[in-house]
């Protein structure tokens, strides 16, 4: 992380400060590094991913002592954070959207047992369909989790609120985990002028000693405790009551803390941000970044003689109902803009709570208009703000609200422009070439495959059309198409979230010629399992007889970009149930679709955006996961590895995979593919890099058929084995390993490659291993 620090110091408040120009994500990380948390459990998801990236870069340079723990998914990251918080230290996290929903069941556990931490929610649309831009649909799921929620309208607020939030979380009157919410991309990636503490000691003095005294934790051997016991009534309701009381106390505590912060810094964060509300007759209520834009609209309307004002809370849990009712007591009409809908509730969550506040405190005269706006990252401009005011002005003139609830900013559809099919369904006969023969040997139990020369398969149509948006040199689609050359007939493909999914399905277009399904990172295997079983059951019942099926579909799940980390559990579940389907993993050694963070398949010592190289760190610090061996341990009938470097081998394995998937059960395959953008390599060198990876024995080619391992290409027998260092020099992400200071990491990586290769050779020689 490179903070642009201006030489001049600011003289606001009583503490020395300095000016930086950075984004919201950078300021969340900067505040965290000044606090010097003990633990951050994390998993990358856009747009919050950068927070961990910036902290890892600072860690590599020795700027903080935070232990960064890369989890297998957001649910796991929440578990890491909860466990760390029970042990008495300070804990930090950041997430977004579906990642937050994946960890959602952990949120009430943390608040219900009263262990403080701070988590940044960089707000983003919740799927589906998939959209990675900013709105508040994830934030609204947080409202009932028992976490106080503070809001950040700009990068300055992100920095300040991250400091305030920790002090709020650890206050004896509160003792709850706190959520810091900012707008994805609008705030998280926008660079602005920010005032920061010059000295981290001043930050640490403000937040206080760690851990705070007087609260139990699990590392006190003289006071053993039970965390999260089973609880019956009336104890459970009493526990919830105490938590509720703490939540309501958080409003006054927050106000006290922000006043203390204002004395130090000169920056105030009142419960409600009120703009020209003293005599306002019409108002707009908005959260976060939009609340800054609306101020300009207020000024424009005031210049025209309209008594306009704006309201935006800095904290929404607890909801400042009394303060809002007081602010609106003289307002004739207010438009409440929600950047998410509560489907079926006649408005978003904020408008419901504003209406409830007015009723609770006896305001029956202020008219309330609900408008849903800005979903999926749709920009909010001054003209949108003007329209929000017009809804309120019209209500005042009419003496009533004509349309209490509606969406603002939608586009009417045009039937004449409805998407039309561009590619006709692939001809079955062209897919069923007959050039590949697959026979089952009853005596050995093995499947034998004969594959013609590749040139004879070039006429076979591609499953994915040209025109996708992959980076130059990306190996995903050449690898997938080579595998698909071995598949005869129709397929149904499911793609996990990842590069292959994102670059082929930008609505209203699709590069997929065959039927395609998408589900989230973690749950593709379970989803395709349901498709497979529904197909066979509907076929058994005769419901598909009229569809002209000549053969069964081949069901293929494509995963990559770390999908076999977060999706490992459902994949193993599908394997143990032995559904007749194929899971094919393209391994590009990282979470490339979110910005090249480390995955568990990233090899030791390799550089990623969350395993940086610096004087205190030399790339990833632990070894890569061997998913092929993990899946082989589930005893599914067929497991294989493949690469473009051995095309006939990969086509043959594709054909064998299809036979097993249609006749026996689950198949798992793993192909190594290049990612020049994030491997920092030349586009043209992809095939050579993969070839070297195979010939170093880092990525051996083999298959496990009915439990028996066979190495299908042995570089030692061919006289082609090359040193690991020769492969690593071909990629910018690993060139540092040739330097003397990283020699020990290189030795350990080489040793692990040799150990795994020797184990594989032993399995090849002994069918019982």
Structure description:
There is one protein chain. With 769 residues, the protein is of the alpha/beta class. The chain contains 25 helices and 28 strands. The strands form six sheets. Strands 20-19-21-22-26-25-27-28 form an eight-stranded mixed beta sheet, sandwiched between helices. A seven-stranded mixed beta sheet has the order 4-3-5-6-8-7-13, sandwiched between helices. A six-stranded mixed beta sheet has the order 10-12-11-14-15-16, with helices on both faces. Helix 1 packs parallel to helix 7 (155-170). It starts with a strand and ends with a helix. Mean pLDDT is 94; it is low at 6-11. InterPro entries: PFOR_II (IPR033412), Pyruvate:ferred/Flavod_OxRd (IPR050722), Pyrv_Fd/Flavodoxin_OxRdtase_N (IPR002880), THDP-binding (IPR029061), TPP_enzyme_TPP-bd (IPR011766), Transketo_C/PFOR_II (IPR009014).
Strand line-up in the sheet with most strands: 20-19-21-22-26-25-27-28
Helical stretch count? 25
Mean pLDDT: 94
Beta percentage is 15-25%
Overall structural class, as computed from helix and strand content, comes to alpha/beta
Keywords summarizing the entry:
769 residues; alpha/beta; eight-stranded mixed beta sheet; seven-stranded mixed beta sheet; 28 strands; 36% helix
């Amino acid at each position: 992380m490179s903070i642009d620090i201006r030489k001049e110091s600011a003289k606001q408040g009583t503490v020395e400060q300095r000016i930086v120009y950075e984004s919201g994500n950078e300021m969340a990380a900067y505040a965290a590094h000044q606090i010097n948390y003990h633990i951050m459990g994390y998993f990358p998801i856009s747009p919050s991913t950068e927070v961990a990236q910036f902290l890892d870069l600072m860690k590599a340079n020795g700027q903080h002592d935070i232990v960064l723990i890369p989890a297998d998914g957001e649910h796991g990251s929440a578990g890491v954070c909860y466990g760390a918080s029970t042990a008495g230290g300070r804990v930090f996290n950041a997430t977004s959207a579906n990642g937050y929903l994946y960890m959602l069941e952990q949120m009430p556990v943390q608040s219900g047992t009263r262990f403080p931490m701070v988590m940044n929610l960089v707000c983003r649309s919740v799927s589906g369909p998939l959209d990675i831009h900013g709105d508040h649909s994830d934030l609204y799921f947080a409202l009932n989790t028992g976490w106080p929620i503070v809001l950040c309208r700009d990068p300055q607020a992100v920095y300040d609120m991250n400091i305030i939030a920790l002090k709020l979380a650890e206050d004896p009157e509160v003792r709850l985990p706190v959520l810091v919410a900012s707008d994805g991309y609008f705030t998280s990636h926008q660079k602005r002028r920010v005032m920061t503490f010059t000295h981290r000691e001043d930050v640490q003095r403000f937040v206080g000693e760690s851990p705070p005294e007087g609260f139990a934790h699990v590392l006190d051997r003289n006071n053993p405790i039970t965390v999260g016991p089973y609880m019956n009534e009336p104890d459970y309701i009493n526990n919830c009551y105490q938590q509720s009381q703490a939540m309501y106390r958080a409003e006054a505590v927050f106000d006290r803390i922000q006043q203390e912060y204002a004395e130090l810094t000169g920056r105030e964060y009142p419960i409600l941000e009120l703009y020209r509300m003293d005599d306002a007759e019409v108002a707009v209520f908005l959260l976060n970044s939009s609340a800054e834009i609306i101020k300009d609209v207020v000024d424009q309307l005031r210049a025209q003689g309209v008594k306009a004002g704006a309201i935006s809370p800095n904290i929404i849990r607890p909801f400042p109902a009394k303060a809002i009712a007081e602010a609106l007591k003289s307002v004739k009409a207010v438009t409440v803009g929600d950047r998410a809908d509560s489907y079926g509730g006649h408005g978003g969550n904020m408008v419901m709570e504003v209406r409830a506040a007015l009723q609770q405190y006896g305001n029956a005269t202020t008219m309330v208009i609900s408008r849903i706006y800005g979903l999926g990252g749709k920009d909010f401009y001054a003209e949108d703000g003007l329209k929000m005011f017009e809804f309120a002005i019209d209500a005042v003139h009419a003496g009533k609200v004509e349309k209490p609830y509606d969406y603002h900013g939608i586009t009417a559809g045009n039937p004449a422009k409805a998407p039309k099919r561009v590619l006709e369904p692939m001809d079955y006969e062209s897919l069923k070439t007959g050039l590949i023969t697959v026979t089952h040997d009853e005596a050995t139990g093995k499947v034998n495959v004969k594959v013609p020369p590749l040139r004879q398969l070039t006429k076979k149509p591609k499953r994915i059309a040209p025109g996708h948006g992959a980076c130059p040199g990306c190996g995903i689609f050449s690898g997938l198409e080579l595998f698909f050359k071995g598949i005869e007939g129709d397929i149904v493909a499911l793609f996990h979230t990842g590069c292959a999914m994102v670059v082929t399905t930008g609505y209203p277009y699709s590069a997929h010629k065959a039927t395609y399904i998408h589900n989230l990172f973690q749950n593709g295997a379970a989803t395709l399992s349901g498709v497979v079983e529904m197909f066979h059951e509907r076929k058994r019942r005769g419901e598909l007889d009229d569809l002209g099926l000549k053969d069964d579909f081949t069901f293929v799940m494509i995963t990559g970009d770390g999908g076999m980390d977060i999706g490992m559990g459902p994949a193993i579940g599908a394997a143990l149930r032995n559904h007749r389907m194929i899971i094919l993993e393209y391994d590009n050694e990282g979470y490339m679709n979110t910005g090249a963070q480390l995955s568990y398949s990233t090899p030791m010592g390799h550089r990623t955006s969350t395993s940086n190289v610096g004087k205190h760190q030399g790339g990833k610090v632990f070894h890569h996961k061997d998913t092929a061996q993990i899946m082989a341990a589930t005893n599914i009938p067929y497991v294989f590895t493949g690469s473009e470097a051995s095309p006939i081998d990969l086509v043959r394995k594709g054909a064998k995979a299809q036979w097993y998937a249609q006749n026996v059960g689950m198949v798992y395959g793993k192909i190594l593919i290049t990612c020049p953008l994030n491997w920092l390599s030349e586009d043209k060198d992809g095939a050579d890099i993969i070839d070297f990876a195979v010939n170093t024995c880092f990525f051996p080619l083999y298959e496990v058929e009915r439990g028996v391992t066979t190495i299908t290409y042995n570089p030692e027998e061919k006289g082609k084995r090359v040193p690991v260092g020769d492969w690593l020099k071909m990629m910018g992400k690993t060139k540092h390993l040739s330097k003397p200071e990283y020699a020990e990491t290189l030795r350990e990586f080489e040793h692990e490659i040799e150990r795994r290769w020797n184990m594989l050779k032993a399995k090849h020689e002994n069918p019982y291993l």
